[in-house]
Amino acid sequence: MLIPQVAAFFDQGTSTVSYVVFDQAGGRAALIDTVLDYDAKSGRTSTQSADRLLEYVTSQGLKVEWILETHAHADHLSAAAYLKAKLGGKVAIGQHIDQVQSIFKPVFGLEADFAVDGSQFDHLFAAEEVFQIGDLSGRVLFVPGHTPADIAFLIGDALFVGDTLFMPDVGSARCDFPGGDAGLLYDSIQQLLTLPDATRVFVCHDYPPEHRSDVQWQSSIAEQREGNIHLHAGASKEAFIAMRRARDQTLGMPQLILPAIQINIRAGDFPPAEADGQRYLKIPLDIL
Fold first, then answer.
1. Number of C-alpha atoms within 13 angstroms, CB side, residue 118?
2. What is the mean pLDDT of the chain?
3. Using an 8 Å Cβ cutoff, are 29 and 21 in contact?
4. Strand extents, DSSP E, the chain
5. DSSP labels for 160-227?
6. Which residues pair with 90 in a beta bridge?
7. I need a surface site. Which of 158, 243, 263, 279 has the fewest CB within 10 A?
8. Domain count, the chain
């Protein structure tokens, strides 16, 4: 099995880890969970985070085949549209994104012709679908729970879990967003934990606990199975659901959820311009 090469890029503002996965220098690549910078105070976007990936891809002589999303993120804006314009590649997400679009179209009062069929994306992955990144083979795993549409990517020995799992000393993702389900998340994680012990696990975020000062993003299935504080060996589904529900009640909404969802369910594109030529995001009152 060809071992994928993985370059990680941490965005300090959103605690997000984006990845460039490729078969070899000068070969083919995929970008995973990219970040478009957004200043909530001014409403301005910028591309510093995404440009780090762009510069790396260029320096390695890579051709981008895929720009992959594990789900429609609530904590950062996707740079998929920007990077596609610069580097090419197909923007892809799981096929159940239509459920997320259907939930949020009325929340944000989106335009009547906004499609809730995932057609904004170049490709919608089905569970267990196999795809290629040059000489690398990837497989799509359906892992709902955090949202109803989450997927993970198993590329060679590297598993990109999105928000399903965090580092073992951080635990697991919240399940209180619309369509989230702690029981489904438990089942999804149990599916992942059946993979070989040595499988490399790459997370989408890291929030270091007090005992750890450095940011980390890579563990293994064995380390997750043995040491994840929410799912260590022997943790029951009932106990996990109770823990997750109690913990989620203490969490505030992510700072960027309102702009992020509106952009991310559009595959990273901005809303269409209004009559004055300006594009706007909407802030719904007393809904979330």
1. 19
2. 96
3. yes
4. 5-11, 16-22, 28-32, 37-39, 44-46, 63-68, 90-94, 123-125, 130-133, 136-142, 151-155, 158-160, 200-202, 218-220
5. E-TTSB--TTT-B----STT--HHHHHHHHHHHTTS-TT-EEE-SB----TT--S---EEEHHHHHHH
6. 66
7. 279
8. 1
Note whether residue 273 is domain-resident. no
Residue 278 lies in a domain: no
Cα separation of 27 and 47, whole Å? Answer: 24
Q: Which domain holds residue 244?
A: 5-256
The pLDDT of 73-87, averaged and rounded, is: 97
pLDDT for 134: 97
Q: Tell me whether residue 271 is in a domain.
A: no
Tell me what pLDDT residue 48 has: 98
Q: Can you give the pTM of this predicted structure?
A: 0.96
Q: What is the CA radius of gyration of the chain?
A: 18
CA distance 113 to 119: 12
Look at residue 1 and tell me whether its pLDDT is greater than 80. no
CATH label of the domain that carries residue 163 = 3.60.15.10
